[in-house]
Specification:
Blueprint (H helix, E strand, L loop, with lengths): L1 H29 L82 E6 L5 H10 L9 E5 L4 H7 L3 E3 L8 H18 L3 E6 L3 E2 L1 H8 L9 E3 L7 E7 L3 E7 L8 E4 H6 L1 H4 L3 H9 L3 H12 L5 E2 L23 E2 L26 H8 L13
Parallel strand pairs: 1-2, 1-4, 2-3, 6-10
Antiparallel strand pairs: 4-9, 5-11, 6-9, 7-8
Helix pairs in contact: 4-8, 8-9
């Protein structure tokens, strides 16, 4: 009996081992095989959004061109602006100036530029005569004089390029906007690539102007100039039924001159063409150059490209380095109350002979001019 029970125990033990071995085989067979050599997949990243630009850099502090033009609170929210385009051009004297981006230089000739000179009848002799003697003589076909009265003598000099706007001779915002409206329409008719506005007390250094404009494409949105304020102007924008809202924007002062590409000028048409410029100006009750900035910056959301190559009589012109005078785009001179405010540059004329220094600058740029002293060298 004892021997039979021992035999049964051995058989049970062997059966148990066999069952365990069979169970292990079944487990290994049913287990899902692990993939070999497949690296972990990274999580997909969201597409980065384009960072908007904050407040624009302030231009160098200058005299205010429009007293009491607007409030300068910084409470308004600034909107992002598109990046600038065009090749980088060293400006030397402009730490806050916009630098064009990488783009091939556009072939540009003087015939591609429409230069508008704003004046009034009482300055035809005292100011325009000097311009025709100097820089306008080098760009007769490209320079258009916008005035407010007929002048037979001036007609002989400028021909069809003298334009009587029939606007008021008063120095009011309405009269200024009236002339700017005519300037804009005449430029659109001209089919030229660039619109540049200057005043009758500006000297335009044509080689520098062409060099600057050729850094950009005329088909792109380009607004070049120098602010007279060191901050954006803020004013009330009148709305038809909802009263008014605050609007804030930069503008280039017309006293120093500014330039606009044709591509951008065409986009301004709904607010600037065929008399609409005057209507737009009435919404903000500001002068012509401010209205230009309002249309471009506030309505079209195209940023002003700040440059210090443009100069007006409102700034201290004696602070301009002598060795950089001839590389500027526009120059000016002080009025009756500040005759000493002129660029510091030596040449063939004394201050008595050339109080504006325009003749001196012109003879350094164009020494072969018949009335220039022969001993003047660049």
């Amino acid at each position: 009996m004892h021997l039979s029970s021992v035999g049964i125990s051995k058989r049970c033990f062997l059966v148990s081992l066999a069952l365990c071995a069979l169970l292990l085989l079944l487990i290994s067979t049913l287990q899902t095989p692990q993939r070999q050599g497949e690296p972990p997949q990274p999580r997909p990243h969201a597409r980065p959004t384009r960072a908007g630009r904050g407040n624009k850099p302030h231009s160098a502090r200058n005299a205010t061109g429009h007293n009491g033009a607007g409030n300068t609170k910084d409470s308004s929210v600034t909107r992002p602006h598109p990046p600038e385009a065009g090749p980088r051009r060293p400006e030397g004297d402009a730490p806050h100036a916009s630098s064009p981006g990488p783009q091939s230089r556009e072939p540009l000739e003087l015939k591609d530029v429409f230069i508008a000179v704003k004046t009034t009848r009482k300055y035809h002799k005292s100011r325009l005569q000097l311009l025709f003697q100097t820089w306008v003589s080098e760009a007769k076909e490209q320079t258009f004089i916008f005035t407010d009265g007929e002048d037979v003598e001036l007609k002989k000099k400028a021909g069809a390029n003298i334009i009587n706007t029939n606007c008021s001779a008063a120095h009011t915002r309405q009269a200024l906007c009236c002339k700017m409206s005519v300037e804009y329409d005449k430029f659109i008719e001209s089919q030229k690539k660039w619109f540049c506005h200057v005043d009758d007390d500006n000297y335009v250094i044509l080689p520098s102007l062409l060099q600057l404009l050729s850094s950009y494409s005329h088909t792109q949105d380009v607004y070049l100039g120098r602010p007279s304020l060191d901050h954006p102007i803020e004013t009330a924008e009148r709305v038809k039924s909802d009263g008014s809202v605050s609007v804030k924007f930069w503008f280039a002062t017309g006293g120093a001159g500014f330039c606009i590409s044709r591509g951008l000028a065409l986009k301004m048409s709904p607010w600037a063409s065929l008399g609409n410029f005057i209507t737009t100006a009435e919404k903000i009750r500001l002068p012509d150059d401010c209205t230009i900035g309002y249309i471009i910056e506030a309505l079209l959301e195209v940023p002003l490209k700040h440059t210090r190559l443009f100069h007006s009589h409102l700034e201290n012109l004696q602070r301009l380095r002598t060795d950089s005078v001839l590389s500027q785009v526009t120059l000016s001179y002080g009025g009756f109350d500040n005759r000493r405010n002129v660029v510091s540059i030596a040449g063939g004329f004394s201050l008595v002979e050339d109080p504006s220094r325009f003749k001196t600058v012109h003879c350094l740029l164009y020494p072969k001019t018949h009335w220039c002293p022969r001993n003047v060298h660049h």
